Amino acid sequence: MLKQGLQLKLQQKLSPQQIQLMKLIQLPTLAFEQKIAQEIEENPALENGKENSEDLSMDNSSEYEDSDSETIETDINIDEYLSDDEIPDYKLNANNSSSDDEDYQVPYSGGTTFHQFLENQLSTCTLNDTEAQIAEFIVGSIDENGYLRRPIQDMVDDLAFSENLYTDEAEIERILKIIQQLEPSGIGARDLKECLLIQLRQKEESPERKIAIEILENNFDNFGKKHFDKLIQKLGISKDELRDAISEIEKLNPKPGGSFSGNDTNAEHIVPDFTIRLNEGELELSLNSRNAPELKISKDYTDMLRGYSESREKSKSQKDAVMFIKQKLDAAKWLIDAIKQRQQTLLLTMDAIMNYQKEYFLSGDERKLKPMVLKDIADKINMDVSTISRVANSKYADTPYGTKLLKDFFSESMKNEKGEDISTKEIKNILAAEIEKEDKINPITDDKLAAILKDQGYLIARRTVAKYREQLDIPVARLRKKIL
Questions:
Q1: Chain segment 382-411, per-residue pLDDT in tens
Q2: Domain range for residue 198?
């Protein structure tokens, strides 16, 4: 049964400009620079103002605003050119250039990818056309770590449907064995056990490697759980022989694909967004100047807009041109305002963080880090938690104690036996230190770690210790055990 009814609802929607501003705030320095360079390239009404610093106060923009206040006989919808789309409309227009024009764009590095490296090696193998096609399909199914995660039967079906090539599992297995002989060693394995065995069998035979193969082939479960006594008993070997065999296994690469020198992953280059300095016992905060580009609005474009408004006769082509000009001027003015707002937001947020953690920044002692969550900073500067999260995300500060990720200054709190609030980061540091100096033959269990923390005044349950240990990416005691 259909019913009609009236419902009142309050909704708050972000404008396209606000959404773009949030995106600007979230960008780290390098990405922000690239965004500004892209905007300058795409918007002719936007200019770099470094050559004339007098224009930084946006004198040109005021001229634009004066001309804009006059009546222009065009209807311009700002949403049409300030949308939330990452690709502005004007970027989608075709360039009016000849195919013979030279391209001065700097090309990206064209190195050999991991899969190309494997395919190049296939050309040295003796394969007929069908085998080569199957081999290329298998290589294309290998992931970035060097593993073949897809079931053989699935590849048989895919070859039939996508390549119109009918084969069977035995043929796939045979060609896979050929691929597993390629470099880097261990490539094309279906699990860790097979990966390690491939690498061991390609090495020169020795007594310790023979034992290592026996361990992986027939006792992999005991090896993974570090049941050393069971291995010694089952294999009938001494502790020294077991230690030498395990040493051989530890030299192997569990991710052979990651060792490829031509891997197309880029090394991350960190550029600090903020600088904190100690000057005569006082903290000084500054924003990286690369976050404060000097931009201005093109005077030529404001002059063109003024010329149109003063013209007596206005043709259709003139109206079309002025719509384009006004669109570019509005976008340029908005970007300059947004950059200033971004700078203010970054500085305001970082200043609040610096003052909240003043004891740490004065001493460099991580034990002085106070418990701090996003809401603590948001309440101090009257901003939304989401804004603080965007500022802290992927931003770095250059401090007297090294370059630090902003979100590392945030941590939850808990109370010690004195009822004082302490940072969970402090507890994690103590856990890491205790595990670092433990006896590796008899690692400390979570229960013992909880007892150690209790002796130091931190009343923490065993399950909480386990949670913090996992957050530190430290395995359980059994898996930390070593044979010495």
A1: 998 888 888 888 889 999 988 988 988 887
A2: 114-259
